[in-house]
Structure formats: C-alpha cells, structure tokens
Design goal:
CATH class of the largest domain: Alpha Beta
CATH superfamily of the largest domain: ATPase, nucleotide binding domain
Low-confidence stretches: none
Shape: globular
Distance between the termini: 73 Å
Radius of gyration: 24 Å
Strand content: 15-25%
Bound molecules: D-xylulose
Oligomer: single chain
Mean pLDDT: 95
C-alpha cells in the first residue's frame, strides 16, 4: 500500500460526466471535474446530453459521447498533474435504467484497445443500436402492460422484481427494441446498462451489472438477486445470453485495462468495482448506511430515498426497491412535479426565489385549510398521465395560498407515499437545488416531525462511487473499516439542522389525512372530503 491512497468515483449522469478523486488518509478531495455533454461535445447536438424524438416520449442519448468524455476527463486529470498511479480503486455511477446495445465487435475492440488512439475511434463500430434509451423515455406503456400481464399482474411483478413495470425501466425498453427492430435485436450480442457499459470500457472486458442498478430493470429477482427466467422470458427471446452477470456492488471485477495505464499513467494494479446506479451511489455519498435515515433530493424531479435493512416492497407499486451498495436494500420514490412545479408558481406571480421564500415564512402552517394536488406535469407518484392542478379552498390567483400550497402539497405527498416503508426516519438529509431554501426545509421538518439536515455535497453519486471503491480496497487488504468509518469524514460536511416545531405536529398529522382523502377523491372516485376540510379549518384557523 502506498502512503497516499487515492480513490476515484466517476458519474456518467444524464447531463455530464463527473470524476472525483479522494485522498482517504487526508479525508480530502484531490480533484473534482465535471464535463457537461452539451458544452464539451457539441458535435453530438444533444440538449444537455439528451436526444428528444418528435413525439416527446422517446428520449435517448449517445453511448459514444460518454466514452469520448471518459478520455477527456482523464486527460484533464493528467493536465492538472494528478498522479493517477496513486489511485488504488475505481468505481462509478450511471444514470439508471438506460440500455446500451452492442454487437459482436465489442469484445474484441475492448481487448485490443490501442493507447496511441482514442476510445471514440476504436469503439464507434461496436453498437448494434447507435443510441441508448434513457430514464426520461416514457414510450413503452404497451410493453409495460404486456410484461406485467405475463408476470401475473401488478402484485406479482412488484414481488418478483421490486417494482411494478415502469416505462423507463430496462426490461420494457428491451422488449420495445426487440418488437420494433428484431434484426438489430438479433445482431445484439450484449445489452449493458449505462453503468456496466462504462465499467466494461475501464475493465477492457465485459463488466457485470451490480444489484443496485440490476433492480431497476424489471428483470432481476429482487429476493435472490439473480436474473429471473420468468421476467426474461416475458421480455424478449434469448435475453439471458445477451445480459452480463449480476454481482454484489462490492465485488472486485479485475484491474484497469492496459489502455488507461499506458495512456494516462494509471497503476496496472488499480482494482475495479462494478459501477452502480446514481441513486444507490448517492445513498453512500450522503452517508445513508444504516436504518433510521432518509434523504430528500429537491431537483428537476424530487426523490425520497432511504436505506432499508430488510426487503420490503411498496404494495401500491408506486415506488422502487433497489440493491444498496452495502449488500442491503434501498427505497426510492421519484416525483416528477419537483422544481418545474415550484417554478410554475414562482413565475406565475413574477417572484424571485427570495420573495417566494418570504411568503413561505409568513403564511401559516396548514395554509388556512387550502389544499392543492400539484400535477402540473404527468406524475410518476401517484401515477397521473393527464396533468391537472386541483385547488381546494382557493383559486389560482391567490399568491400567498398558491406559494404555500405547492410546497405543502409536495411534502405531504412525499410523507403519504413513503408511509409504506414502515420506518419513520429519525433524520432526513436534504440535497438538491431547492434544499438551499430553509423555509422549504422548515416545512419538510414540520410535516414529517423530524430533524432536517441541509446537505452541502453536490456530487453525491460520484463521491459515493469513490467511497465504495475505498471500502472494497480496504476489505481486500484486510484493513477493517466499517461503512460508518468510510463515509464519516466525507459526508459530515453539513449545513444547518432544522428541527420540527412540535406545536404543528398534530396539524400536519391531520393534514396528511386530509391530503390522502383528496387524492382518493380526485384519482379513485372516493367521497368528497370537504366536510373534513371544514373541520380542519375550524380546529386550526377559526378564532373563538
Ligand atoms: C430513478 C431514475 C432517475 C435516474 C436519474 O429511478 O429514473 O433518478 O436514475 O439519473
């Protein structure tokens, strides 16, 4: 072991490739670099890394662009005079669910990579499909229905794979490719996820899919963590022969390909781990390695995720269970009406974020009994195909009520739709753009009656990958370090803690009940809960 122990985490996300090298002993990042695809690779003509097809439902990207980015990020590290031979282990993160289709040339090309050429020119002919459908694609409703039906229905699908079938999941995407282009499917020798594809390039060989990302395919048996023959057969013929192996996230897959050793000065003994999905990596990157903690990421879409010790699936089929890189499980709930919905309200009233926040501060918890169901866009949770915003007790021109209602509705919905997890967290980490706003965080604290920690790390997926590689490296060398020790110093860079105000606990317990009733009323034809809303107003807002 060298004195300096560097670990590299890469993150091939929707919009960019990011790399973080950490020095474990000094507990510091050595370098962190991010290459936004649109900016660095304009010749692919993507919109922030994505290609949208006319119908708006089909969303793809270029795997060759990600490969080109890999060469560039290492060149940047080299230019910055980072000694890459000090990197002991590497892992990575990929946007989840996306699939990469490769032909018979892939294998040979990887084995014979020549360091005097670049990756792009050597890998441009290895694809049986030039583009890769990614997680934003929602064009496979028919395939979702077909697979769900063959598996025996929604309940059976959830119990088998950890999630109901979802348009963006890999299985329905593979089925669509097989149905629409059977010859190209036939020519496809291997289908990788974004994560395992990038890991294969580093390895110079076929890399396995880890249980974290494998769980986002509707193809892996969530209990045994093996490919499910039933799910494979429901998806496409001979699929097992076209998929890499599944493995634990902490398994060592080999050492780095000689291409990178010769070209960038990596150490030929640098060990590689499987890459995982961005959500499992972020779980580690924010330090969720034990029960009782959850995270809320307030981004383009809002996500709620948490560590799960024992497998437990969502009976409603709205959420997902993925493998955690620790070998356990994690829950993930994805809400599409996140930042875009907040922005709609902010822009309607021409507010700055500061003014928006001030309104949150001055309006009362419970919003005088005004309730919104905020489906500005089609929603994943609950499943809404035709967007519509519902308001009860106020109209669209009431500025204060709308500002408070959008935030309260998002948080009430998160609380309601995460109840199936069964364990109330004792702390929630908040990340993502809107987590800077402490007025929003106060509402999260009050609604959930839990401490909220503002989390300041932005590249949690890349950091999580670097920390995973550190853990495996120390395990391999017999140096005992628990997950808690691994994540402690890197994930404790926190901002403010915001505590719940106990006097609002009962109000929000009642309001979440009301919210549920309104969802039932609007989405499932339940009774009109107006009389409960009037009671709520009487109890909390009528002065006697
Ligand atoms: C999770 C999901 C997204 C992508 C984003 O199910 O679809 O969070 O992983 O990269």
């Amino acid at each position: 072991m060298s004195i300096k122990e560097y670990f590299l985490g890469l993150d091939c996300s929707t919009q960019s490739l990011t790399g973080i090298i950490i020095d474990f002993e000094s507990k510091k990042p050595v370098i962190s670099s991010s290459l936004p695809f649109s900016e660095y690779f304009p010749h692919y003509n993507t919109d922030h890394g994505i290609i949208k097809f006319e119908d708006g439902k089909i969303v793809h990207s270029y795997p060759l662009m990600w490969v080109e980015a890999l060469d560039l990020i290492f060149s940047k590290f080299k230019e910055a005079e980072i000694d890459l031979s000090l990197i002991e282990a590497i892992s990575g993160s990929g946007q989840q669910h996306g699939t990469v289709y490769l032909n018979e040339k892939f294998f040979k090309a990887l084995k014979n990579l020549n360091s005097t050429k670049n990756l792009k020119e050597q890998l441009e002919n290895v694809f049986s499909r030039e583009t890769a459908p990614i997680w934003m694609d929602s064009s496979t409703t028919r395939q979702c229905e077909e697979i769900r039906e063959t598996l025996g229905g929604k309940k059976e699908t959830i119990e088998l794979t950890g999630s109901d079938t979802f348009e963006r999941f890999s299985g329905p995407q593979i089925r669509k490719f097989y149905q629409e282009n059977p010859e190209a499917y036939e020519r496809t020798k291997i289908i990788h996820l974004v994560s395992s594809f990038m890991a294969s390039v580093l390895l110079g060989d076929n890399a396995p899919i880890d249980h974290g990302d494998g769980a986002g395919m509707n193809l892996m048996d969530i209990k045994t963590k093996k490919w499910s023959d039933k799910a494979l057969n429901a998806t496409a013929p001979n699929l097992k022969d076209k998929l890499p192996d599944l493995t634990e996230s902490y398994h060592i897959t080999g050492t780095i390909s000689p291409y990178f050793v010769k070209k960038y000065g990596f150490n030929s003994e640098t060990i590689l781990l499987p890459w995982s999905g961005d959500n499992p990596n972020s779980l580690i990157g924010v330090g969720l390695i034990e029960k009782g903690k959850a995270a809320i990421s307030l981004g383009t879409s809002d996500t709620y995720f948490g560590f799960m010790e024992k497998l437990h699936t969502d009976p409603h089929g709205e959420s997902h269970v993925f493998g955690s890189p620790t070998g356990h499980y994690m829950s993930l709930i994805c809400f599409k009406n996140g930042a875009i919905a907040r922005e709609k309200i902010k822009n309607k009233f021409n507010l700055s974020w500061d003014e928006f926040s001030k309104i949150l501060d001055k309006t009362p918890p419970g919003n005088n009994g005004n309730i919104m169901l905020p489906y500005f866009l089609p929603e994943i949770v609950p499943h809404i195909l035709n967007p519509k915003v519902y308001r009860f007790g106020f109209d669209e021109n009431n500025k204060d009520a709308n500002v408070r209602a959008i935030i309260e509705s998002q948080i009430l919905s998160m609380r309601h739709h995460s109840e199936w997890i069964g364990e109330k967290p004792n702390i929630i980490y908040a990340t993502g753009g809107a987590s800077k706003d402490t007025a929003i965080l106060q509402i999260i604290a009050d609604v959930n009656d839990v401490d909220i920690v503002q989390f300041e790390i932005s590249d949690s997926a890349a950091l999580g990958a670097a920390l995973r590689s550190a853990k495996t490296y120390y395990d391999k060398n017999g140096v005992k370090k628990s997950w808690a020790e691994i994540v402690k110093d890197f994930t404790s860079m926190r901002g403010t803690i915001i505590s719940p105000r106990k006097k609002y606990k009962k109000l929000y317990d009642d309001m979440v009940f009301l919210y549920k009733e309104y969802e039932d009323f609007v989405l499932r034809g339940g009774i009109n809960p107006e009389k409960y809303r009037q009671k709520f107003i009487e109890l909390y807002f009528k002065k006697n």
